[in-house]
């Protein structure tokens, strides 16, 4: 992984890479070995962000520190992988923003996925980068994929970085590509990647549009895995549904497209009418919170034994607990209960339930 490579490079440059060995070299003095160990620990810590550093302050052995970091941050769990996919699919460049900064952010997101063992084809990366550009770049995007049989990420990046405005990009590409015939497959992929639900829009209408886009691709002979479909659907939702998205992904081992659609429709049904837009944030968490209680008895003993210091709550985003024991969830539930009355509470428990495999 990238972070492992960087830290190893730091140690090699300082002549401290021996510190990661299990035992002291036979020809080295104990005092010299101790000094190398201390310097290695210091070097590794200097390469860490403050948020990560505080979780490993007790480690005094470079070997143990290295192993701790690997166990904490080399995770390839489904939740981490899905959240990174979501970050990539949701990445958007703001109008008037820096193209260079945006490409750097894009590269960072892709690198995180590749380091986690994910495979992202070059063509998919290119399409995702194009789909992340603002509306003013639409002529550039259309020209970039017009009449193409192949699409390379490096070519897109070079072309984008050469020009400073959408107009110049358009003029450059008009002279570069004579053909204006759109490649249906690429355009349909672009339509799917760019699909976004507006704030306050109808969930049913959005799901219908999503299904229509997917059907067009499938009918054209494209293959879209179920996991990719529901990730794209979640990434297409507005910011107000972010708690719902996080709740759907958090701590999952499996998830299906039909599950996501059913939960999304049910969530929309329950927040429709009397509930305010602010309540919808809590409802997404409540739907998962209620479902997980069914397994709390089975998993309670394991949860007591687990070190929770590095576990992050997907509701309040603080370390030390999951959503099951989040004090903010309990407070918000009480507020909502007082606001809506006890009659509402029973209906929340009927929302789609999810299994909790983290604890």
Automatic annotation (TrEMBL):
Origin: domain of life:
Eukaryota
Per UniProt, residues of the CCHC-type domain are: 312-328
What are the protein's UniProt keywords? Answer: Metal-binding, Zinc, Zinc-finger
GO molecular function terms listed in the Swiss-Prot or TrEMBL record:
nucleic acid binding; zinc ion binding
Is Zinc one of the keywords? yes
Protein name, as recorded: CCHC-type domain-containing protein
Its source organism is: Cuscuta campestris
